[in-house]
Specification:
With 311 residues, this protein is an alpha/beta fold. Helices cover 37% and strands 15% of the residues. The protein has a 6-stranded mixed β-sheet with strand order 1-2-10-7-8-9. A 4-stranded parallel β-sheet has the order 5-4-3-6, with helices on both faces. Helix 7 packs across helix 9.
Length: 311
């Protein structure tokens, strides 16, 4: 056993298989009777992807496991902001499977400062953090810039997972989310960062069901990214999906007092701890859309709970 309680490859080589993560699949689908939607004739279900695994939460498990398999024991290097759930999940996977991990963090001004709780969790799980200047970070997908980042991080031979974990492997992994929902819902809503979960979810849904993405970043660029991910993963568009980018609350990692009040109220109503940067924005958007009459009476909406608050 390793010092931190994880199993190393020398202890048990098969632990490097993602099967060692022991997921709970399919994730539960729970009714959430909410008067704010019910008065419009809308039924709300919660797809509890947050219960798949205690540390690789929700869509992070679905996206990471195919990449862990492809990495075949190599160091994993990936990217994220200072509050990235993806970095946390990758670090946790590395600890659980005995794999080295490197996180390239946006913003060299953060180097030398005390780590925030999210990055502190990554470091505690054994992830080496490398801080990159924002202009460099924006060009991270360019081959020369990526090679320079790998050298600077001392990880030239690493298996690279893109920001948010969204690549063709991850998209195909998220297709199972739609397949699990089968015909239980007319609309399936998910919060979106890089678009990979939405791209896979839409591909797995039954005919007649549509996916609704609620972006948590400003910019209006996500539609093109989702289409590109589906081309890469499936060779072309799949499923019925749309985006509503009105509920980002100012951008990534930003909230508003109104959103905080909404999330606290939802927690009281349903006994569910609501993660603020993704899940709260998606749930807030669903209530607003119901008030606008966006869902015909008799619609069943499934909200994918992709994460939990950082403890």
């Amino acid at each position: 056993m390793s010092d931190n309680g994880g199993v190393t490859s020398s202890d048990r080589p098969e632990a490097l298989s993602p099967a060692g993560l022991r997921p709970r699949l399919p994730s539960p689908l729970q009714e959430a009777a909410d008067a704010r939607l019910a008065r419009h004739g809308v039924r709300l279900l919660l797809k509890r992807d947050d219960l798949i695994h205690p540390e690789l939460i929700g869509n992070k498990w679905r996206k990471l496991v195919p990449n862990l398999t492809a990495a075949a024991g190599r160091t994993l290097l990936t990217f994220g902001g200072a509050y990235s759930n993806h970095l946390r999940a990758t670090a946790a996977a590395g600890r659980l499977l005995g794999l080295p991990t490197v996180g390239v963090v946006r913003g060299d001004e953060l180097a030398g400062r005390p780590l925030n709780p999210s990055l502190a969790r990554c470091a505690a799980d054994g992830m080496r953090l490398h801080f990159a200047a924002r202009p460099t970070y924006r060009r991270k997908s360019e081959p020369e810039t990526l090679a320079a980042l790998l050298r600077a991080a001392g990880a030239e031979d690493a298996y690279v997972v893109p920001e948010g974990g969204s690549n063709s492997l991850a998209v195909r992994g998220c297709r199972a989310l739609g397949e699990e929902l089968d015909t239980h819902a007319d609309v399936v809503a998910v919060a979106c960062g890089t678009g990979g979960t939405l791209a896979g979810l839409a591909a797995g849904l039954a005919p007649g069901c549509r996916a609704l993405g609620i972006p948590v970043l400003r910019g209006g660029f996500l539609g093109g990214d989702v289409r590109a991910l589906q081309r890469e993963a499936f060779g072309g568009p799949r499923g019925d999906w749309s985006l509503d980018d009105r509920f980002h609350c100012g951008g990534y990692a930003r909230t508003t007092p109104e959103l905080d009040r909404f999330a606290a109220d939802f927690e009281q109503r349903h006994g569910l701890a609501v993660e603020r940067l993704y899940v709260a924005k998606m749930l807030y958007g669903l209530v607003a859309l119901a008030d606008e009459g966006a869902f015909p009476r008799g619609t069943t909406v499934a909200a994918v709970i992709t994460g939990t608050p950082l403890a």
